[in-house]
Design brief:
134 residues; mainly alpha; 2 domains; two-stranded antiparallel ribbon; 3 helices; binds zinc ion
């Protein structure tokens, strides 16, 4: 691990800079439009705007963090939506496997039981892979 790089301007939120609510680009307070995407920077200070601003700050930081992570280690983490997808897949596979297994027991069917075990096994492996990546 090398020393942390110099923090980008956005992370040290100075009072004389504000983030563009459209693209997250840090602009000077005196700017009337974003230097990056030309969106108007004039806004009223409502609760909704506060939420929007907070959201963009968090998103901006998250993107910077992702960038730094991918620079730090060559192994890139799977994106969030992929993790969710794998999680659902694992749960569904396990659930279907257990369901098939119970019906296989009631029908006394060996091949169905085998398929069920395979499904459960695959579901567990999917979940295990997902959590070991963390
Ligand atoms: Zn912008």
């Amino acid at each position: 691990m090398d020393k942390p790089k110099k923090e980008p301007v956005t992370l040290n939120q100075s009072p004389d800079s504000k983030l563009c609510l459209n693209c997250g680009f840090p602009n000077r307070n005196t700017d009337t439009q974003c230097m990056y995407c030309r969106t108007s920077m004039i806004e009223d200070s409502g609760l909704f705007n506060w939420f929007r601003q907070t959201y963009y700050i968090l998103r901006w930081r998250w993107q910077l963090k992702q960038k730094r992570n991918s620079l730090d280690s060559q192994e890139s983490k799977p994106p969030f939506y992929r993790s969710i997808g794998f999680f659902i897949l694992g749960v569904v596979l396990s659930a279907v496997g257990i369901f098939v297994f119970t019906s296989a027991i009631s029908q006394n069917s060996f091949s169905s039981g085998l398929i069920a075990l395979l499904l459960v096994g695959y579901g567990i492996v999917t979940l295990k892979t997902l959590f070991s990546n963390k």
